[in-house]
Predict the 3D structure of the following.
Amino acid sequence: MENRSTLWWKSGVVYQIYPRSFQDSNADGIGDLQGVINRMDYLAKTLGVDAIWLSPFYPSPQADFGYDVSDYCDVNPEFGDLATFDRLVSAAHERGLKVIIDIVPNHTSDQHPWFIESRSSRDNPKRDWYTWRDAKPDGKEPNNWLAVFGGSAWEWDEKTGQYYLHSFLKEQPDLNWRNPEVQKAMFDVYRFWLDRGVDGFRIDVAHYIMKDPELKDNPKNTDNSQGELKPTGDYGSIVHLYDKGHPDVHKIYHELRTILDTYSPPRFSVGEIHLKDWNEWASYYGKNNDELHMPFNFALLVAPWKAQVFRKIIESVEKVTPPWGWPNYVLGNHDEPRIAGRYGPDKARQAAMLLLTLRGTPTLYNGDEFGQTNVEIPLEEQKDPWGKRVPGTGRDQNRTPNQWTSGPNAGFTAEGVTPWLPLADDYKTVNMEYELKDPTSILNLYRKLLSFRKLSKALQSGTYQSIDPVPQECLVYLREFENEKIIVALNMGETTARLDLHRFGRLEIIVSTGMERAGKVNPSLIDLSPDEGLVMRVI
Ligand code: NOJ
């Protein structure tokens, strides 16, 4: 029987690093793996997270900033080399940090040797490693599938006279996971990194790898609300019934789990799976703890900031997570506008409290702990291919350099170097160095929440229970483990709210979002200002 509290990916906190923007060590304006090594003490000691997830660092033409991989078993020279990667893993492990790496199994770069071979001729042995189809008699695409990044999911190849499938950019052709050779090659990739000591994988668009075998046309969408990555542009005009998530996908993740379980200790997997249907989403846990350890849960990320909406989502997650499974929550990542940009600085503090106190693994996004916001970048200077193709979808705004100091280039890169994306104007006061000196900063709030979480079994692995009755605009819940009881109360409304929690007995405040309230509180009369949150212990 596994011990819930000792499994790091259940009790710990994951921190996402977007290597390009995290820390530059060689003054080329681009973050790199040595930069991550240089910040390892910050991650392990100053901040106090338990695992890092590295977004792709593989060789890549960077058409989609690393999510177009041209070699799965190496490091892009911009980021370092395999020896640097090995040093990164050792530096992390020496400090007790786990390392999760991003893997992109749905598509390669069009510059990957597999695709170069595949497109070289119709009878090349790797032709079937990708999905090639003839045009319809009128020359049109084989079906009506659309690419997430805009336009058709099919690209015509003049030389061999067929279309190939790409769910994202045409520079990201989809692998054909129905081909056993592809499965073997990709499982070997997983093994390559496992043997190098990684602790787990974040699997890019994990559900996309298996499509309908007949490639049937997708139906038209009538309500345009499928909970997709971002149903913007024409992508939302069809229901994505046949172009991903075919039930055969479960066999693949079952096999992956078998591989992960052969390592000691077993390695971890989390899938990027945007799905609105809770039951379909939860099916990726497997039927018997035998597929992914977790499908990422993005539901709060796209929800309106309302206590009742959040509560309903949390309760759905609690209900749908299988008994052996473990929930998780995400409020920010490299694809979405920054938390502080979406909700403002005060709600960003509440978001930190919520994320670090719910039942489930929290994943933090680098820079959110400083309260970094979105940076407006004129369209002509934007680099993200999605933003350039579909107005309003640009992700550069939330990928700008990490703000470390008030000095030149915020300490991200050397003075005089132009960072690959512009720095936020606010970096002189929104940065690690400055905020460490301010006891009430959002960074110190994150640190306090993280250090308390480390001490609290109730927060790490206790049960979750919504508390009633409370004012409508408040989200209040109990986390409980043996005789430890922690109550979290968040006022998500516009006016002061009063709570009566006297039925729990005596309470003491451990953390307040404003970092100024502490100690005993009258449990029958707890006033919460708008945007305020409290973590309290039943004493
Ligand atoms: C999801 C990733 O998070 C995103 O950044 C990327 O562009 C797409 N998958 C395509 O790989």
Notes: The CA atoms of residues 209 and 407 lie 45 Å apart. The domain at 463-538 is CATH 2.60.40.1180 (Immunoglobulin-like). The longest strand covers residues 474-481.
